Amino acid sequence: MVRRRVTTALIGTTAVAISAGSASAQQIEAEEFVLDNGMTFILVPRTEQPLNVAAGWLARVGSANEPAGMSGVTHFLEHMMFKGSDAIGTTDAAGDQAFRDRLEELREDLFAKIYEVQYPRMRDGEIADPWDPANDTPEIREIRAEMTRIQDDQKSVTIGNEFDKIYTGEGASGMNAQTFYDWTRYFINVPANKLELWAWLESDRLFDPSLREFDAEKDVVVEERRQRYSQSPTGELDEQFYSMLWISSPYNWPVIGWPSDLQAYTEEATREYFETYYQPRNLVGVIVGDFDVDEAKTLVTSYFGRLQDPGEPIPPVTTIEMDRLGTMVLEGSCDCQPQASVAYQGVPYGHADAAALDVVADLMNGRTGRMYKSMIEGSELASSATAVNYTLKYAGAFNIDAQVKGNATPKQLLAALESELERLRTEPVAERELQKVKNQTRADSVRDLQNNMGMLQQILAVEAYGSWQDINDYADKIDAVTPDDIMRVANEYLTDGGAIALYTRNESAGSGGAMTLDDALAGVPVEMQDMLRMQVEQQTATLELASAEELEEALTQIQAQSAMVPENMQPLMAYITQQIQARLAELNATGEAPASDEATDDTTGGEG
Amino acid sequence: MTRLTFSTLTAAAIAGTASLAAADIPSHPRNINFPEVEFEPPAATDYRTELNGIPVYLAPSSELPLVNISFTFRAGGHLDPSDKVGLSSLTGQLMQTGGTESLSPEQLDEELAFLAADVSVGIGGSIGTANLNTLTDNLDESFALFMDMVRSPGFDEARFEVLKNQTIESMRQRNDDGLQVLLREWDFLLYGVDSPDARRATLASVESITIDDMRAFHARTIQPGNMIIAVAGDFEPREMLGRLSSALEGWDRGSRMAKPAENTHEFEPGVYYIKKEQAQGQVLIGQRGLTRDDPDAVPVQVMNDILGGSGFTSRITNRVRTDEGLAYTAGSVFRNRVDTRGDFISYYFSKVPTVALAGRTVIEEIDRIRDQAVQTDELETVKGNIIETFPRRFESKAGILSTFVTDEWTGRDPDHWNTFRDRVGGVSPEDVQRVAREYLDPDNMAMLIVGPWDDIAVGNTASEPDPNRVVTMGDIKGGQAKEIPMRDPLTLELPEQN
Q1: Across A180-266, where does the E strand assignment appear?
Q2: Contact criterion met (CB < 8 Å) for B463 and A312
Q3: What is the pLDDT of residue B33?
Q4: Parallel, antiparallel, or unpaired for β B66-73 and B48-51?
Q5: Which member of A516, B5, B186, B492 has the lowest number of beta carbons within 10 Å of its beta carbon?
Q6: Chain B residue closest to A89 (CA)?
Q7: Under CATH, domain B270-483 is a member of which superfamily?
Q8: Contact A97, A267 (CB under 8 A)
Q9: Which 3 state secondary structure label does DSSP give B325?
Q10: Are B44-248 and B270-483 in the same CATH fold?
Q11: Domain limits of chain A?
Q12: What is the mean pLDDT of each run of 10 residues along chain B (498 residues)?
């Protein structure tokens, strides 16, 4: 096409850094101070959004700090921090405490029975899940019933979600909290005249949180786990992939925790975890927005100053990640687009090579990135591809995900990714390509300052690992990365064989809840089921050997026969049809790429 | 650390409280005196001007060296021909990725990326947007590229293939996530499968779309006469008007496109389910609602915030999640629309055995807000929230412009924001009950469930120790339920019934 050769005059083609003047002048100007009890505060006054203040705090504790059998407790504690205190959430603190004490006794009783009776039953193969109420013995069920009665009674002294209601009624918004491997953070927007409300409620819950509604909240977290992992097409496989890629590091269990551990927390152990890791020395408060610094200082000093420093040591994270000695592969299937991921061992936050690995990811990503050019547009193997350099506190991972297009396979994607990495290892990146990434980093560092909450989140994120000043230095660090650095880190880090995930689509998924043989047999008289099952299984087993033409012919025959088969046998015919179509789709998918693009669209199930 | 530390802390708490009292820290947040803040909403007229009859909103601010230029158009899915559903959306996406008449896609992308300019085009339900966000220093270069893309998009064939393929790949995945199935079937049920408010692109509709279709759609809709401009950030207004004026030269004016039509589909109330093997049941219960400008929209917002629209503060979340631990996500929403009545949806995702129990709980709460007057403190909390969060809408320049541009497109009463807080403040418990009775009609609601139906239907009979909490789907809405088979993800056709 002719137009491709035309270049307009307005575009310069030399590699120059953009707007070094105004953009680099944009910095976060913060005031940092430490209270007598060791809690740090970072104040960032700004008036771009009058009327609003974003405020939050960080506890330097995440799932990496959890002891064995308590996975997920950091996140669970985060949920429990919204339950209030003696002053918030109850009309009768002493009465509430009495209910909680009684519940804790019953809980210990319940757990003892589950470990003594239900765990052995599980090991014997009698039941699948010792915690599932459907497997309860009568004695265990009675304990649960008693707990339910007490919980119902406790409601008479509970003011449900009072913590949230107070904020809500005063016009606060966006209240939330997040837990990750290394940190837990809590944040909210408050009207500019109500910073004191934030100081009151946050220091109150840090001072003496009441872990009430303990069992119902466990159920909520179990449900959250279902929603985030079990319900997500790739959620449960991804969880096991991450668990595989971290070898010895405490990042190798999920932040939300394993299902069994989620059931097993006691109030006392949770409280102890709070007291260990929420000491003021381990906390950082951040305020961004329209406020007066001196007033805010006075406010936080009197409110948060009341937290006592118990002076207990904060346990270090001991275990260091082991080097990977060979390639690790997880092959799974899900109701998902076929896809491939590869994760290499990277570097932790603050490492001298972190910036160069960030640049590697940037070079790969986006519509002008290398993966788009080679895999999405070029070879057309992928419909999407993303690289991320994760730098956590104690270790890092460099991760690439790609989803297939059409009939490509995850293994083809992997090969294409490898050849991109090989290019990075062997060819120096062009000056203009590198400068583009640097320009974008600098522009993004300005965009990140656009709103209070965004800036607050950035500061909280960075403070978990380093210092807020790192935000101001980041663009300079990226600027210093050279083509040699990129080749060096690609050779040093992106070569350990990697942890690899290859997902294919579940056979039944594409056709939308495809039926199983059991479904198909459901309408058939019971006495005939076994015989029919055997026949159909034999028939479908032979499909593996049939050619496409034979399968097409079989389909035609089945359609002809269908009309004459009694109604209760129809599902069976549909089942056989489905199996044949699936096999046909498989043949199409694994065969050579068809000469005509049109040929890929005739699969009924979308397994292609 | 055990009880010992705990009691030490408790002692410290008491000591602390005493010293706080001395330092004038109130015993409860309700006793804090907040400084008064006056806030009057800005007036659209202070930001609005016209350029050859085209509305232009300007909000200069020099804090950051960034400029954001946004063109909006009356262009959306409502204009798609019925056999080419997806045309408007694909046109927007290809405008962004398909280069210009003088620049190949690769050239355009490279230049914008090098300038670190963010450019996006999106054509949605009834409004399309082309947006440029750039550093002030690059404004001239970036804006020239942006204008070239908006006025003379290249609609490159190879990029069209990529886009089409990506669209088809995502179609293949649209039965993978139960939530996507749930929301799709809900729209089909309430608005009608073929209505512009519900319909989705299919393999056939996407394959029938040609580049010529897109060029024609672009020529018809992306025109000054069908456009509103908004600019926020670091610029000088007079200079910006000059820049815009030159950029519009020689561009056919065109005219305003039609608004979406009213949707008069009548849905069949009842319980519906779609079988899908998964760990939870995903559920919507609701009915058609009201339009955005309905006089009852304000009391309905207050009512719904009490019922399920204000997170932990609201009743459904409080009972289903906090009290009973039956869901992580539960609540309700009125999705008001501008041109036709929207809908009311209460929603929750619960583990399979407790779908019925959670459903009974939600229905009880819908009944309760109809049958009993709300408590004053609940009402004051949600009214306080709506009134106190009101300034947030106008706290940034981008927020102000986005509000006014939407208002102009949708013909909102210019006095709306000036009287809004008073109208919220005036809502009484009687108003809440009246609108609850008028807009919540449990007997005529649809309940839609995605999940493993056979297990959902038997409820928690095997696992629930408390007989008062044992519920099966047979106990819900008379126990009648109708299956909607899973559609083919590419054609969206229902499987043939034998």
Answers
A1: 184-191
A2: no
A3: 93
A4: unpaired
A5: A516
A6: B28
A7: Metalloenzyme, LuxS/M16 peptidase-like (3.30.830.10)
A8: no
A9: coil
A10: yes
A11: 31-89+159-304, 328-505, 517-602
A12: 31 37 76 92 96 96 93 96 96 97 97 96 94 96 98 97 92 93 98 96 97 97 97 97 96 93 96 96 98 97 97 95 95 96 97 98 98 96 96 90 96 96 98 98 97 97 94 93 96 83
- Do A31-89+159-304 and A328-505 show the same overall fold? yes
pLDDT of A567 strictly over 70? no
Domain boundaries, chain B: 44-248, 270-483
CA gap A558, A567 in Å, rounded:
15
CB B328 within 8 A of CB A224: yes
Rounded to whole angstroms, what are the CA distances from B448 to B43, B127, B326, B337, B344? Answer: 43, 29, 18, 21, 13
Q: What is the pLDDT of residues A345-404, one digit of tens each?
A: 999 999 999 999 999 999 999 999 999 999 998 888 998 999 999 999 999 999 999 999
Which one, of B47, B89, B488, B496, lies nearest residue B231 by Cα? B47
Residue A137's SS3 state is: coil
Distance from CA of A367 to the nearest CA of B (A): 7
Instruction: Please tell me the distance from the alpha carbon of residue B185 to that of residue B154, in angstroms, as a whole number.
Output: 36
Amino acid identity of B317? T
Partners of B119 in the β-ladder: B132
Strands ordered across the beta sheet of B128-135: B48-51, B54-60, B227-233, B66-73, B128-135, B118-123
Of B135, B318, B349, the CB nearest to A446: B135
Residue of chain B whose Cα is closest to the Cα of A451:
B396
> Residue A274 pLDDT > 50, yes or no?
yes
Residues of A in contact with B179 (CB under 8 A): 231
| Residue numbers in A near B66 (CB within 8 A) | 446-447, 450
Report the distance separating Cα A168 and Cα A175, nearest Å.
9
Question: Which positions ≥6 away from A55 have C-beta within 8 Å?
Answer: A187, A188, A189, A190, A195, A198, A202, A285, A286, A287, A288, A289, A456
Q: d(Cα B280, Cα A219) in Å, to the nearest integer?
A: 13
> How many Cβ atoms sit within 10 Å of the Cβ of residue A254?
23
Mapped onto helix, strand or coil, the DSSP state of residue B447 is: strand
Q: Please say if the pLDDT value at position A595 is more than 80.
A: no
Contact B449, B271 (CB under 8 A): yes
Structural domain A31-89+159-304, CATH architecture: 2-Layer Sandwich (3.30)
For A164-220, what is each residue's pLDDT tens digit? 999 999 999 999 999 999 999 999 999 999 999 999 999 999 999 999 999 999 999
Residue of A189, A202, A231, A298 for testing the chain B interface, max B β-carbons within 10 Å: A231
* Integer-rounded Cα radius of gyration of chain A: 29
Contacts of A197 in chain B (CB under 8 A): 29, 32, 34
Please state the rounded mean pLDDT for residues A3-15.
32
Lateral strand order in the sheet of A396-404: A328-334, A499-505, A339-345, A396-404, A382-391
Q: Which of A164, A217, A335 sits opposite B313 (nearest CB)?
A: A164
pLDDT digits (tens, 9 = 90+) for A40-64: 999 999 988 888 999 999 999 999 9
Q: Beta-carbon neighbour count of residue A431 at 10 Å?
A: 12
Predicted pLDDT of residue A525: 67
- The three state secondary structure string of B349-381 is EEEHHHHHHHHHHHHHHHHHHHHCCCCHHHHHH
Interatomic CA distance for residues A556 and A477, integer angstroms: 66
Q: Do A608 and B349 touch (CB under 8 A)?
A: no
Instruction: Please give the CATH topology (third level) of the domain spanning B44-248.
Output: Cytochrome Bc1 Complex; Chain A, domain 1 (3.30.830)
CATH class of this structure's domain A328-505: alpha beta
Return d(Cα B468, Cα A128) in angstroms, integer: 27
